[in-house]
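Components:
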Amino acid sequence: MHGYAIAERIEQLSEDILQVGEGSLYPALHRMDEAGWIKSEWAPSENNRRARFYRITAAGRRQLEAEEAEWFRASEAITRVLRLA
Amino acid sequence: MGYLRRLKNVFFSRRLGKELEEELQFHREMRLRKIQERGLSREEAETETARRMGNVTLAKEEMRDARVISWLVSCLQDIRHGVVLMRRDPGVTALVLLVLALGIGGNATIFTLFKAAFLDPLPYQESHRLVTVLDRFQKYGIDEANPTIPEFIDIRDRNQVFEHIAFFDHRDFQLTGTDEPVRVYAARATASLFPLLGVQAAQGRTFLPEENLPGRTSVVLLSDAYWRGSMAADPAVIGKTIRLNGAPCTVIGVLPAGFTFDHPTLGIPEPVEIYVPFVMDDYYTLRSGGHSNVRRVRVLARLRPGLDTRQADADLQGIASALVREHTPLYQTAQGEPSGFSFWAQPLQEAVVGRYRPLLSLLLGAVALLLLIACGNAAQLLLARSLRRGREVAVRVALGAGRARLIRLFLLESLVLAVCGGLLGLLVSVWMTQLLIALLPMRNSVFETAGTDSAVLLFTAGLSLASAVLFGIVPAVKGSELTPAAVLNVRGAAGGARWRHVMIAVQAAFSVVLLCAAGLLCQNLWTVLSAPRGFDPGNVAVMQLRLPHVREQALNPSPMRAYSEYLEKLAATAGLDSAAVVTGLPVHGAMQTRFRIEGALDDPGALDQQIAMWQRVSPDYFRVLRIPLHSGRTFREDDTAERPPVVIVNQEFVRRFLPDKDPLGQRIVSGGPLTIVGVVGDVRMAGLKTTPEPQVYVSYLQGYDPNIHLIVRSSLPPPLLLDRVKQAIREAYADQAVFNFMTLDEVLSRSVAAPRFQAFLIGAFALLALMMAASGLYGVISCLVTQRTSEIAIRIALGANRTGVARAILGQTAVWVLAGLAAGVGLGAAASTVVRRLSFSADPGEPLMYAVIVVVYLGVMLFACLAPVRRAARLDPSVALRCE
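Structure:
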């Protein structure tokens, strides 16, 4: 997917609660590309212009799993504190 | 892979920027279209898009940061800033580049010479295996005598360590059969010389071993220069016959163009034109009685692969011991004790260039000091500049720069200056190297091939880097110390004064050390130049003759009559005042011979001392050179071999050996009794020695030497004089060549070439150092005046006069300058033993010389302070204070 499509999808899935701005999206994409978690290539897009398309790599999937697990642990802990405190 | 791409992105930043912009532009268009679908007008849609995009610039920066090697980018930025600063401050830049170019260039030059002599191998095949074999006589303290030919034969036959062994010496030949007889300088060698050096003939062949045996047809090998010069590069030269010393010789080969073997340090004082085989007849090869006819030659050898000089020494030691056993009388002193004889092998490179090590070391030390002074200058200028940049540094700190980042910034700016200075220095060194080689007091082919090559480039690059750190570190550390508050609130920056004073003191010390060295060398030069000569060189020309063998045989048993004939013809030549012949030459040197005083006790201690310069002269010799005759008479034409042998001695001889007697009529013994008939004034015989030596003169008719100098006094211009002399000589004998014509003044000048070269070169360095130190002081005082303008204005307003102002400004700096001066004089005096050893100077520095140096130094420094101090004293307090 190219960067715009990623942004749209995030908005879609979160029912417009999460609106990603370019100020954070693209730097993050490029950093992840350099880290090797995603890879990118230029390709023609739907409106006949070329865009940079990203896809996740195997290393990226492993990183995603790790960060996901971390996120759920943290949010669980916060929810517990809020509920009990 | 990613790393390489990131490296490329550093340098192709515009391409990266376009890519990033393209990606964001795509996003913007998609967003715009999406918003427009919701029904907003174009304008509103664009506003909304812009809002949604947010801070695109920041986003682009972060994207770029992820895609490049960030530290490299910031380094490049720093370097670019360095270039900007260079352009902004052309005065400072010019000064820094100038001193760096001089300092780095000077070092590169001396390094080029040093490398050509000591680091580059000699231009022969596997030259590390080449050695020269020398005699050692421990009892006499002689370490480096050449072996005799019988010794060479024994080493050749008995050694187990050498693959090849050869010897050579040199000889003058007369080439006849052309318009006029020409003298040709030849090397006589064994056939093994060329295989030993790994040289093959470019045309024809080199010698065969049989050609060293007596009774073979004479052959000759031409050097490339001789073939091109004197035989016009004749393509059919092989097989041609030339007449050398009256005998026909066949040309059998021409050596390749790059081959040179005439190193003066190996005993070949002039460039070799032709090579002839050394004819090993019994005259040379037998150990005929005593030390007579036992010629010494330069021996070369090539070690077998894998052997070193230590093993060679051990083998040679065995041969030497055997020789001492077999020929004991030859290796004993006059008293019958063993003379401690042995052989040893010296690496050929050491024999060829070892003698230059002291001079090059001296020069290397001097330029190193010069570079340090130059770095001091650069450091001061940069320190002043970095303190002026206080505000810029404060802004950087406020934007988040750490101390290390600032230091890196300053160091990279210094690196830019150092690299530019290094490049300029390289240009300077290319020019200076050629100049120095042309002016060197010694001729050696290793220097003629010296040039700027990759090793020199590497050295210059390394030196530039080292200098960058050396002069950049203090400005970097001091410049990055400034905190924003300190700079933005307080007026001006007063820091760094102590460091600047330290640098001034260090520069003072180093430049004074150089001045002391230069002073020492100049003092020695002066001593040598002003020492009494004992003769009058004006209007005297000298030239050399070698009596051809044919003529010697024709006039047997008195070949010296040929000289009488020449002198007769010269006496009849118009324009000549007087002429004489002599062996050896004043200032040039002559043979030394032992003798005994007849009637004196044979005290062994005294016998050792009885050695004197020995020269054969014709009667007019003293008149030509205007050497005063103090008592007795000069030689006469009837002091021939049939008459009693007579000698003339000089005053030093009388002073040393016959102090209480009338020398006339006394006899000395050297190969027979000789009667003293005259006493003449002392003549300086060695260019660099200034104390008189005992001299003995014998009549040219009472002994024979084929090699002679002809000296002529005449007021004719030299070319005309040479023509007339040649004509006169040829009237007496048509095949006599005359060569090495020069005026006696030129001989004198050449004899002091080495001390003159050293004095001038080190003197030039010292002057440069002095100027750098002066400009450094000027910079510091100027800076102080600017910094303390308000203080000075107040002093003037309160009534201080000019001296008061001067004292205020200079007071503190003067202490450091004087401290540096004192340290420099102390160091210079301490280093004087080293300088004297490296330059072969005889005398230590005199107090007067040091006094002159101190006075000159203080004078120059005061002059440097003059302008700023005068500026300060002229300050108008009202104007100065208001400008605050």
